[in-house]
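Alpha-ketoglutarate-dependent dioxygenase AlkB
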Amino acid sequence: MIDDLFCDLDSKDQRREVLTDGALILHGFARGETAGLLAAIGEVIAAAPFRRMLTPGRLRMSVAMSNCGPLGWLSDRQGYRYAPLDPDSGQPWPMMPELFAQLAERAAAAAGFPGFAPDACLINRYEVGSKLSLHQDKDETDFGAPIVSVSLGLPAVFLFGGLKRNEPTTRVPLVHGDVVVWGGPARLRYHGVQALKDGRWPETGNCRINLTFRKAGPPDGR
Ligand code: MD3
Ligand code: FE
């Protein structure tokens, strides 16, 4: 009886929730890796500090970003793109930690996308009030690969829309340890993040950190 109760809690923590065709939440999938993930993020950020990038329209984003892996996502006056060098240091982005790549591969496989080999990991840091407006992720070359997202720290409300900007959106709460896999017909859906609410999450310094793993470059990596 007690065993059943604990089994129940366990299965709830590892709940799989289908958002729509191609989009799956793996609740709590990364929770057991918290310490390792935060330590690895700290190492990446020491080499490539968080920065608030400029949009092509010259507005400063409220979300602070960095990257690791062969390619990193950038925004500046010239536009959005992936590039192998950190423009702030002139150096390659830090290597993608083995733990990151393995977690992303395992999550993608659990969602039905075996063999996911990300070449870019965008690291987003949200402080109180930071938000991400509704957008599509379409700077990658291959939309056949999924995107894997890992949420750490303070909870956030994720907005999930359709294939056109004007379609209605659904609100999806994401908490520490949740992993979402977006592939197939969900890959080009509009999405965003509502302004982060104040809260206490000492492990992440009262912010939310989101990792998004992408296959950004060409399939052969050239
Ligand atoms: C749905 N990041 O970095 S991750 C982004 O929480 C971004 O920081 C958000 O959107 C964040 O571009 C959301 C979830 C996500 C990522 C990619 C998607 C949802 C997606 C691609 C297609 C549809
Ligand atoms: Fe996005």
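thats it. Residues 4-214 form a domain with the Jelly Rolls fold (CATH 2.60.120.590). The two ends are 57 Å apart (CA to CA). bye
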